[in-house]
Design goal:
The chain is of the alpha/beta class. Strands 1-2-3 form a three-stranded antiparallel beta sheet, covered by helices on one side. Strands 4-6-5 form a three-stranded parallel beta sheet, sandwiched between helices. The chain has helices spanning about 5-15, 45-55, 55-65, 80-85, 100-105, 115-125, 145-160, and strands at about 15-20, 25-30, 35, 70-75, 110-115, 135-140. The protein folds into two domains: about 5-60, Beta-Lactamase; about 70-160, Thiamin diphosphate (ThDP)-binding fold, Pyr/PP domains (Rossmann fold, 3-Layer(aba) Sandwich), CATH 3.40.50. α6 (about 115-125) links the parallel β5 (about 110-115) and β6. The chain is built from seven helices and six strands; from the N terminus they run αβββααβααβαβα. The longest helix has 15 residues, at about 145-160. It starts with a helix and ends with a helix.
Length: about 160
């Protein structure tokens, strides 16, 4: 099974997630439940190849050369753009509260949850020295759109360089 076949099947089954792990068959999350597919356990090489097949050239290089990567998560507890764009028609766009930084730390990443603009500035300064993937979780409100949230950050970056 290649990744395209697996992803096509996942969409047909209504899966929200695909889970790949060496030594396990592929798994799908369907309506919140994990379903193991009737497939032999994946080898390390199969999982590696599937991951590489969906990566861009840049992501492959980052992975192969073990370059630092940073992820900034604007965490409004929902798919905010979906909610703001679709209003009352939005479906399956809300999430239970969770801490992206804690999740990232649990899998070996450096991570911080920021509560203020100055905390964010400090986190952005710390990223280059992390030496491993770095996640910054920025709790936001659904009352503001993505543009509202990022305007202050963009202004501060223009003013301070960070």
């Amino acid at each position: 099974m290649d990744i395209t076949e697996l992803l096509t099947f996942a969409v047909q089954e209504g899966a929200s997630d695909v889970h790949l792990s060496s030594g396990e068959p592929p798994m799908l999350r369907i309506h919140g439940d994990i379903k193991r597919l009737e497939h032999s356990p994946l080898t390390r090489d199969e999982v590696h190849n599937m991951a590489f097949d969906v990566m861009s050239d840049l992501h492959r290089r980052v992975f192969q050369e073990k370059l630092d990567i940073g992820v900034l998560v604007f965490n409004n507890g929902a798919l905010g753009w979906v909610l703001h764009g679709m209003g009352e028609r939005a479906v399956a766009a809300g999430f239970d509260p969770f801490d992206h930084a804690a999740i990232a730390r649990s899998v070996g990443c450096e991570a911080v949850r920021v509560e203020s603009t100055s905390d964010l500035r400090d986190a952005l300064k710390a990223f280059p020295d992390a030496g491993k993937p770095f996640v910054i979780d920025v709790p936001t409100s659904l009352e503001s759109s993505f543009r509202d949230v990022t305007q202050d950050i963009a202004r501060q970056r223009r003013e301070t360089g960070y």
